[in-house]
Amino acid sequence: MPLFRFDNFGHFRPDSLSWVMAGLILFVVVNVLAYSNRYLAGDKNQPRHRRYVLLLAASVMAMVFADHLLVLLAGWAMSNLLLVMLMIHKDHWRAARNSGLLALRTFGFGFVVLGMGFWLLAESAGTASIGSIVQGTSEPTTMHLVALLLIAIAALTQSAAWPFHRWLTSSLNSPTPVSALMHAGLVNGGGFLLVRFAPLFATQSVLLHGLFLAGLITAVVGSFWKLLQTDIKRMLACSTMGQMGFMLMQCGMGLFAPAISHLCWHGLFKAYLFLSAGSVVHDKRTGIATQLSPPRILFACLAGLCGAFAFTLTSGTGLSFADTSSLMIALAFMASTQLAVGLLGKPLSSSRVLSTFLVGAGSGGMYGLSIRLVESSLSSLHAIQPQPMDAVYFAGIAAIFLVWMAMILNLPARFQSRTTWKRLYMAAINASQPHPQTVTASRTAYKS
Amino acid sequence: MNVVALPQKRMLPVTPVEAISIKEMVASATNIVAPVWPLKTFIAVNPLQGLEHLPFEQAVLEAERQRAASSDASTGREAVNRELIKWCSAYFDEGQATISMPGREDGLYRVFSDLARFDTRLNRSRADDIVLASLPDTPEDAIAECLEQIEIIEDHKEEFIRQALAALPGWSGYVKWKENWQTPAEHAKRPSTLVDYVAVRMVLTRLLWPEASLAESLDTPKPIFLSELTVREAQFRKSLLDELLTQVIAAKSPQSSRPDAQLVFCIDVRSEPFRRALEAQGNYDTLGFAGFFGLPVQVKGLDDDQPHDSCPVLLKPRHLVCDHAVDSDTSCVRRHDQGRSLLKMPKSFYQWLKYNFATPFALVEMLGPWLGMRMLARTFAPSLISGLAETTRVMVMPPVPTVPALEGIELSQQADYGESALRMMGLTENLAPLVVLCGHGSSTNNNAYASALDCGACGGNHGGSNARILAAILNSPPVRSLLADRGLAIPSDTLFVAAAHDTTTDHVELYEPRGVSVQQQEMLNSLRADLSKARIANAKARTATFGLHMLRDDMAIQETQRRSSDWAEVRPEWGLARNAAFIVGPRELTKSVNLKGRCFLHSYDWKNDTAGKFLTTILTAPMVVAQWINSQYLFSTLDNVAYGAGSKVTQNVTGKLGVMQGNASDLMHGLPLQSVFAGDGEPYHEPLRLLTVVYAPREMLDRVIQTQDVLIKLFGNGWVTLACIDPTNNQAHLLQRDFKWVSAS
User: Fold this and answer.
1) Which letter does DSSP use for residue A68 in this model?
2) Whether residue B722 sits in one domain with residue B611
């Protein structure tokens, strides 16, 4: 069995993807360790927490640098196990234990699926070296396809994609720094896995479309749930779910390097938000104008186009709508238009219009730069091209665009007395509730 | 009354219950919960407030009994709790969700009866749908109907409602706060009463736990801490009174020389160590007074969007005082305002993109690099980053000098406030050339409980504004001439200066008035230098309480700065932990004693208060606030799960109004573990009931207590112990619960 042969190659093979992922994890781990040093001061389980975080860092290193499938699998299993142990920090608290067990069940399923996938992959390629498998030119067989399907499913469990999302939205019985580590690190495992085998996935159009749709559902559902949440941590968790969905959409479109860029920057962003979750009490929201006159809408869209154009320049994507990179161009447009809408809510003046255009272009440009920064360090993925645009991809992008339009037009508020909306609201609230066993239903059930 | 006669398991006498009696039943059942203030203005309360009419021990037992009865983990009760938590957090949200529950302005019960049909966790069958589609119009009817359906007999109803309220004391306490304490304008945005809340709970119970019945309340064993408490209180009382008595006996004749400055601090226990440190630096007198300086005001700073109440929650603010820029030099003000909107901008950009659909996908990549760097800086160099933020703020938005506008307070009223403040603290003669009125507040980072560390007398806000208002009043020539007419002459060379004491770093900011003379300027400079020295001394004492002994001067200061600006710090300062006594009397009584930051100190001279008017005020207002605070710390330490908020490590802020544990839980009211414990199982706060020591003749106290129900309740039921040091014979006496005095020695 090729999966269990260890003899004929080195078991670790650093490449640019390994280094980028390792850099991300180490950065977050260093921050989390220093943060926990004060945040968990006086907590009786602090030493254990510290040990687990260090072990977790080591096992993730093994995973990202692995060349042997079994090493990767072992690193994957170890890091997930350690994450579960970190989640059950307050081990006398039933809800926390249940959160951990729920995650463990999901991870366990993912592990089995991944193990089977790896086994089939090794069988079909005749080797367990990831490097050789990925560079292999053998004709894709059914076994190969099934292997990739299983790997993709494992990736979905890890990245909390719908319908495997519940462990993530029920994970908030964890200490705050553990949540930061989870959302910046472990949840990205799915993305890493897909990109690790990107050359294989890139040729499987059906699989890619499947990933895209799973990502799309997750992105829409997570992003919508996020807007309804009333507590900070569940809001962040639903938001992560949405972001992971977006990252999976990118993978499904063959945009592997942008997906890595997305998971890195999202990781830092989300870790920061978790660590600063105590500030939310005094954080005031500024409203956004909801009624815009036609000239303002026109200006806003023009500013959005500026943003989209600036994005193509800084990211080096090129202004083309023939392939899937137009997803990001559309996003740059939406973000820049959104900022413009906000800025144009105040009385118009020429300087305000000018600054609106500058802000629009600037934000699109910043988006492009961030992506380029990560992409340029991912030399190994340069060969992979975005997929050609087709009806499925287009419909997906259009769906996102339409929901965004609905928000710009403030439809939820306008339709809030409609029965359909009430039904949708309650359904979303219920679906986004944590698993009942992970809720501390009576006060005495909490154990510090 | 539309009690529908649905098929019943057992025939019950269907007694039409008048709506009014349901209301009364709920009202009388609410004694089991105490109001819970939102985190923005955290107010310490006695969690057993509704039981204060009972003797302390009995109240504790009663609360334990209720808690045991309403927290046995039956599946039905847990399901009801879970759904109620879901509904409450969605309904009461103060701005976390971008898309809120629809129709919240109609009131809790109405929204619930409108939406519940669409909740598939409640609407699980045809029968459920019928119930939910025909919910009564009023919450009272709903309660009555549900009680019938759950088959609760008449005699059990009130107790059943009480258990319903006690099941999630955090959320029901929050509703109690909304009903009784929130301003009407704010309340109207999400109206709700405890009747609404009980109605929702009853409907949930009927659907999810129809077999519910009155839980049997077994007598719980007497908690061990009760006997321990009395022993420790006696020890503390003896050592404190002994120390104070030596001061009385050694009391010298009142000094007649004029001090360089008199500084008035809040009665807060954190003032005492700082006052001691400052007195050691020079010829300074310090006094203690409630930190809102007797002003029932709402204040609005120059940069505030909204005014806030800045007085004890027991008072209704009577005046709005806004800050305005000192001179009409508009270019300066304009620059300030422009800077302010400039500073707001990045935050607006961020929020526009974040609280929306799809745009967050781009936002995280735009800001990822920046937030990564900020994370590193805030974790490894917190003081540096907060210093940089402050420098930037000052550069972009240069501060403009402001004064509080007193137009809202009539002149005679201003004089009244000035007069009663000075007389109550006994500062009527020998006024120093400088009289500093020092409010206080904390400065902490990423701390959901920030306002719990601020001035309780100012409603959980910083107290600097009130100090500035009183200083402006007392510096005003017309007020001074009115006061002179009333026999309270303020020397013409006396200057009142407002200040703010940062209780986290011990930095004192002096709000220097404009147009001071050269001589006054010199005095202020030397005061400033002494305040810095006091800061160092107190920082060393403070760091020792964190286990860092014998730090060098600069290290101690750095450590307090770090704690104040560190986003990972769970114990930025100890707040009012270890508070134990409230001492009413002149500073001479306590000046040479190290009270270790455990005492509220209220200045008082009984000789100026023959009618006992001021003493009445002190005992019924500041002392009651002190008792609320004391009980909050006491119970949060005794049982941090029932009365406290649990560990900060897993806390989750919900609705921007309170804290849950983890995924979802009851609103965890009270203080977090880290505020009262140095480590797991290692309490820092020593739970002791408040000991009030008054330096005044016994007869005077007797007269005051007789007329005040609140004092009869607190002293008579053992919630507060009163000790009197009688100046006529220098003896200490204790008031017993039967209101007889016994010798304390």
Assistant:
1) B
2) yes
